[in-house]
Amino acid sequence: MKVVLLQDVKGLGKKGELVNTSDGYARNFLFPRKLAGQADSQALAELKNKESAEKHKLETEIAAAKETAARLEGKTIKLSAKAGANGKLFGSVTSKDVAKAISDELKIDVDKKKVEVEDIKSFGVYPVEVKVYNGISASLYVSVGE
Known about the structure:
This protein has a four-stranded mixed β-sheet. Strands 2-1-3 form a three-stranded antiparallel β-sheet, covered by helices on one side. Strands 5-7 form a two-stranded antiparallel sheet. It is built from three helices and nine strands. The protein folds into two domains: about 60 residues, 3-Layer(aba) Sandwich (Ribosomal Protein L9, domain 1); about 80 residues, Ribosomal Protein L9, domain 2 (Roll). With about 150 residues, the chain is of the alpha+beta class.
């Protein structure tokens, strides 16, 4: 019997999958516990619509991520910091500082966990990698001055 899983079932499949099971297992275990529904034409149509909606959502997220990466690519962000007489900063410039500067200057919200920056402890220009989406990243520069 073909059934559409309504929840994850260990050893059988994940939620939303179409699986083939024995009639007794479906009638006596899956259906009473509301773990699965019968795979009729309506359930199959809903499953197909859900899959196409998820695919469309993924495509729009990837397109938006590529646009954001293009807007970030090659830009230079200016940060100011206090330093001692020899040019060493008091503290360091962190990914949180870089994410805030990107938000302020370019009006692009970036999570501080997605910003990969080396330790910046003196004035200069440093490369920064921003992971916008899985597999999509942008390279930009941070200019630290007084």
